[in-house]
Design brief:
The complex is a heterotrimer of chains A (about 475), B (about 300) and C (about 290). Chain A has 22 helices and 18 strands. With about 475 residues, chain A is an alpha/beta fold. Chain A folds into 2 domains: about 200 residues, D-Maltodextrin-Binding Protein, domain 2, CATH 3.40.190.10; about 220 residues, 3-Layer(aba) Sandwich (D-Maltodextrin-Binding Protein, domain 2). Chain C has one domain: MetI-like (MetI-like fold). In chain C, α4 packs across α8 and α13 packs antiparallel against α14. The chains are: A alpha/beta (about 475), B mainly alpha (about 300), C mainly alpha (about 290).
């Protein structure tokens, strides 16, 4: 018995040593020129990763004389991993960030990223590629801290309806501009199919159709009007607006009349995959070119997208995907040069997104490709760089990127573009308020319970949580910012 | 002469004991004590580009953040109350099941009970949370199915706070009892069989021998486990309170505990200093309470003391 | 010999059975969902007995058997090496703490105890392991930090203290060294306790995904539990990504696939348990004599 134990340990130790040996080999590179480290989210267990990155490095070396250590971390674990890497001050050059995962604004405020304004003068191609309005959206305290990846940046409310219902109820759906307008449709739907589907208004997306922009993030008081005079910016608590009251009262009305589900489903139940069309009369999200096709792939049946609001260029939309350079990077200039290359070169971005032609995908025409059912290599184009340069996957409209660019360029500019709040003085209040709103949001958005009473209760609790302090402080910061811009 | 030999032996004995402890001491020193220097983060406004030492010293500001929070009272109350219930109910439940298990004589049955009780312990909270959806889902959950069959109204489990104290306690017991039963059972079977034989000859009933032999003999194990858990009274099982409840906002009033609060705060503010400060408070509270218990226990019987 | 009345047999069996069933049923549900056809789950929800059996999710899981086999290998190596080393270190330490005549007993107890309550937090710990010990992408990062578990050491100490001191003294007088006392006398007398701590240690190593997540980027060194975590956490990521207006062609993993991953990750532990169990089953020899 003892001998077996000893043998097992010996064997295991050998295997471990072997494991170390190979893992060191991966990082090996030629000396003499700069090697950058780039962290981004992906699925590193795809079989062709090494091959693709090797090919990419050959090209990168030839073109701009650098090599890149592509560190792809699992999507699901990306945030926890990268937060640790950033917080520990580990040596890396570029990392992917956004306002919804590995939070850009938090990272900037924690001193993790390098301001790029001066460096950008040395990469004119990159600076020109992205329109100044979009650059403005990435500014924190007036400085740019990340290179936004071009994709759909303008935000507008989209209605996603299964195509079969869209065809059937077209007259009821064409004039929808607000949540309330969906009433005839939901009445007809629940009557015709005798169901009580679970629907919600998706506040973070529907707010655009009411012309409201949330400035501090989801469920935190502090919003401005999107339309109106450029110089008259008034901050208010979005949950005290008649629009918000109207929304929750609509939900209540539908619930009480029995058009919608009578109880509250769990978050998991609401988001579960493959919800059949009959339980999914409509969904609310961000409208974008090709959005319907994308939703169809996800749902497994055709879905039609209807844009119900104007498109606005907001900081929230712009910072939904960026690549930033580490404050501790030893090669910031080279790193930005590399980002310029990735964002302006068609060959490299497609290689990094879809892999090698013929092995990882097949081309259908010049700009459209077909991926195999189980991909052998795949990254998200919106994490790697400029999506306008990437191939379209089968089924998406050919003009997707032209349309996207048109919408981004023509979207109405948010009055706050270029402004970034300093959250330090209101951190505590924000945290308090978010937890208050989170406690009510599910119940209110489904119309379960005594809505008016609960809404009043929520507003009262928001007051004690410090919502007024947030509004006042935000107003003060915005006024101060407006003054500096005017000068 | 004899005295002297013992003295020499004593030295050898102490040396041998010290070498035996050495590997553990070194490991503890490296992996537990060295990182403790990092506790200073709790007193700093930590900025990545400035490093731990270079960041600005802010005194107790990070601590104030937690105590000035609106929910501080509710969170502390929830954490302490749940843990108190978990400890007391947990001990009663596991000890009684361990005793029941010890009265079983068929080996096959013991094996069966033991393995099945231990099953939940194998599953992570993520999986348990997922399984619980089968029961609590509004639309297709099993519980609502039963309610409907009984012509009762379906319950939106994830938005009704009143049920959750019970659900949480039951889930906790269900998941951890197997573990504790195993420890107590191991303690019971190491009790000398002779004691029971003697009691039986003296005419003790089964019940009496449990009371007079089993319980006193496993008391040290019970006491040490209780003292150990009291040290963690300000910590909460994140998986239980976050995953099992699906982080449902409507339930916060009864499910919000220190660890879930820190997690959510970190997501809103991204402030490492605050979570370090809260961790420090958790340690201090645990330390104080544990030391007190240890002292009280020590007054009753020196043997039961943890240290 | 002893006569037991009906109540004495019935009551414990009744409660134990009830508890046992409540523990088994959810597990059966997991297995059942993992072999249920996905469309059926969508249509009828979860059920204990699958309406239509489909092994598709297992086929998907084992589509790249190399990945799973590799993850098994990593988990097994870490668990075996970790448990053996850990038991070795902890048993010795616990024994030292259990010896009343050891002069530093109190100090070392406190030294250990203090670590249960105070730690430096995640960031400094991460810096230590990645920067100063450079254990990133190294399996030792999964083994070394968890070798000494204070809770388990105290448990072992309590079990060791149950051995009568007279036995140790007698052995010492016979000239036994401390090592001999520990391995020849104490250990054989505390098999129940050692087996208990051993199974806990095995479980800690087997179930650890957090260290794997923090310290391992190389996909060839992924453990089973981390793969499970990945499947589950990807769901959240995809929901966030959709909400943010970005998109992936990646599908949310289906429910049956998630459950199949659970079964694959937890299954082997259930096979291992009976191996330890013989140490818990009361009185193997005494019982057989008594009948």
């Amino acid at each position: 018995m003892k001998r077996i134990f000893a043998m097992t340990i010996l064997l295991a130790l050998l295997v471990i040593c072997a494991g170390c040996g190979t893992s060191v080999g991966v990082g090996g590179d030629n000396r003499g020129h700069v090697t950058l480290t780039w962290y981004f989210g992906s699925d590193p267990s795809k079989p062709n990763c090494e091959k693709v990155y090797e090919t990419a490095n050959k090209i990168i070396k030839e073109k701009i004389n650098m090599t890149v250590n592509f560190k792809s971390l699992d999507f699901g674990a990306y945030e926890e991993k990268i937060k640790m890497i950033i917080a520990s001050g580990e040596d890396y050059d570029i990392c992917w960030t956004s306002n919804w995962y590995n939070n850009y604004f938090q990272n900037v405020s924690n001193g993790a990223f390098l301001p790029l304004d001066e460096l950008l003068d040395k990469t004119p191609k990159l600076k020109e590629l992205i329109n100044p309005n979009i650059w403005d959206g990435t500014r924190v305290n007036g400085k740019i801290y990340g290179v936004p990846n071009l994709q759909i940046m303008a935000r507008s409310t989209g209605l996603f309806v299964p195509t079969e219902f869209y065809e059937k109820y077209k007259p009821l759906l064409t004039n929808v501009k607000k949540y309330e307008d969906l009433e005839p449709y939901i009445i007809a739907f629940s009557k015709d199919y005798n169901v009580q589907p679970c629907v919600g208004f998706g506040w973070q997306d529907i707010c655009y159709s009411y012309g409201i922009e949330e400035t501090l993030g989801l469920y935190i008081p502090g919003a401005v009007r999107l339309d109106g005079d450029e110089n008259d910016i008034k901050v208010f608590n979005q949950f005290e607006t008649p629009e918000w009251r109207g929304l929750v009262m609509t939900a209540k009305k539908w619930h009480d009349a029995g058009y919608t589900m009578q109880g509250l489903v769990s978050p998991e139940e609401k988001n579960k995959p493959n919800i059949p069309p009959i339980e999914n009369p409509f969904g609310i999200g961000t409208s974008k070119p090709g959005g319907g096709e994308e939703a169809s792939v996800r749902a497994g049946y055709p879905i039609t997208q209807i844009q119900i609001s104007d498109a606005y260029l907001t900081s929230q939309g712009i910072t939904s995907t960026l690549n930033s350079i580490s404050a501790n990077s030893k090669h910031p200039e080279e790193a930005l040069k590399f980002l310029e290359y990735v964002n302006t070169d068609k060959e490299i971005i497609n290689l990094l997104t879809y892999g090698i032609e013929g092995q990882d995908y097949t081309k259908i025409d010049e700009n459209t490709i077909k991926l195999p059912e189980t991909t052998t290599f795949e990254n998200a184009n919106w994490m790697m760089g400029n999506c306008y340069n990437t191939y379209l996957t089968e089924g998406k409209p050919a003009n997707t990127w032209e349309e996207t660019k048109r919408i981004n360029d023509n979207a109405k500019r948010s009055k706050l573009l270029g402004f970034s709040p300093n959250l330090e003085p209101i951190k505590l209040e924000m945290n308090n308020c978010k937890s208050v709103v989170s406690s009510y949001i599910d119940v209110l958005s489904q119309g379960v319970g005594d809505t008016p009473a609960m809404l009043d209760e929520m507003l009262a609790r928001l007051k004690t949580a410090g919502s007024d302090k947030i509004i006042t402080e935000l107003q003060r910061q915005i006024d101060a910012w407006k003054d500096t811009v005017k000068k | 002469m004899k005295q002297e030999r013992l003295g020499g032996n004593r030295f050898v004995e102490q040396l041998q004991l010290s070498t035996m402890a050495l590997p553990a001491v070194i490991l503890i020193l490296i992996f537990s004590y060295i990182p403790m220097f990092g506790l200073i983060i709790a007193f700093k406004n930590y900025k990545v580009n400035l490093g731990i030492l270079g960041s600005e010293f802010v005194g107790l500001k990070n601590f104030m953040f937690f105590f000035h929070s609106n929910d501080a009272f509710r969170i502390i109350r929830n954490t302490l109350c749940y843990n108190a219930v978990f400890i007391t109910v947990g001990v009663v439940f596991s000890v009684s099941f361990a005793i029941m298990l010890s009265t079983i004589t068929q080996k096959k049955l013991i094996k069966f009970y033991q393995s099945s009780m231990f099953l939940p312990y194998f599953l992570s909270w993520v999986v348990v949370a997922y399984m619980s959806l089968c029961f609590f889902n509004y639309k297709d959950g099993i519980l609502n199915g039963i309610l409907k069959a009984l012509r009762q109204n379906a319950v939106s489990w994830y938005s009704e706070p009143k049920y959750w104290p019970f659900i949480l306690v039951i889930s906790y017991l269900w998941k951890t009892a197997g573990y504790n039963v195993l420890i107590y059972y191991a303690a019971i079977i190491s009790i000398d069989e002779v004691l029971y034989e003697a009691a039986y000859i003296d005419g003790c009933t089964k019940f009496k021998s449990i009371w007079h032999i089993t319980i006193p003999n496993i008391r040290p194990t019970v006491v040490i486990l209780v003292i150990l858990s009291i040290g963690r009274i300000f910590y909460a099982d994140f998986g239980l309170f976050y995953q099992l409840t699906q982080n449902s906002g409507s339930l916060y009033s009864v499910t919000d505990v220190v660890d879930t609060y820190v997690y959510r705060t970190l997501r809103v503010t991204g402030d490492v200093g605050v979570s370090a400060a809260v961790g420090f408070v958790q340690s201090i509270v645990g330390f104080a309470l544990q030391m007190t218990t240890n002292f009280v226990v020590g007054r009753i019987d020196e043997d039961y003391k943890l240290i | 010999m002893k006569k037991k009345c009906f109540v004495q047999i019935f009551v414990p069996n009744f409660f134990l059975l009830l508890f046992a069933i409540s523990c088994i049923v959810p597990f059966l549900i997991v297995v059942s969902i993992s072999i249920t056809d996905e469309t059926i789950i969508n249509q009828f929800g979860f059920s204990i007995i699958p309406r239509i059996i489909s092994f598709k999710s297992y086929e998907m899981l084992f589509a790249a058997p190399k990945v799973i086999v590799n993850a098994y290998m990593i988990t097994i190596i870490v668990t075996v090496v970790g448990t053996v080393l850990s038991m070795f270190v902890m048993i010795q330490f616990a024994y030292v703490l259990a010896r009343r005549s050891y002069i530093f007993r109190k100090q070392l107890s406190f030294f250990l105890y203090f670590t249960m309550l105070f730690n430096g937090g995640l960031v400094p710990w991460y810096i230590l392991i990645t920067k100063y010990l450079s254990l990133k992408d190294n399996l030792w990062a999964l083994i070394l930090p968890m070798l000494v578990n204070a809770w388990n050491v105290f448990l072992l100490r309590t079990f060791f203290q149950g051995v009568p001191v007279s036995l140790i003294e007698a052995a010492k007088i016979d000239g036994a060294s401390e090592y001999q006392v520990l391995y020849k006398i104490i250990c054989p007398l505390s098999t129940g306790g050692i087996a208990t701590v051993c199974i806990f240690t095995v479980l800690v190593y087997w179930n650890d995904w957090y260290n794997n997540m923090l310290f391992i980027n190389d996909s060839r060194l992924y453990s089973l539990q981390y793969m499970l975590y990945n499947v589950m956490s990807r769901v959240q990521f995809l929901q966030l990504a959709n909400a943010a207006g970005t998109s992936t062609s990646m599908q949310i993993p289906q429910e049956s696939l998630r459950m199949a991953t659970c079964v694959v990750a937890a299954g082997p532990m259930i096979m291992i348990f009976p191996f330890f169990q013989r140490y818990f089953v009361k009185g193997i020899t005494i019982g057989s004599v008594k009948g």
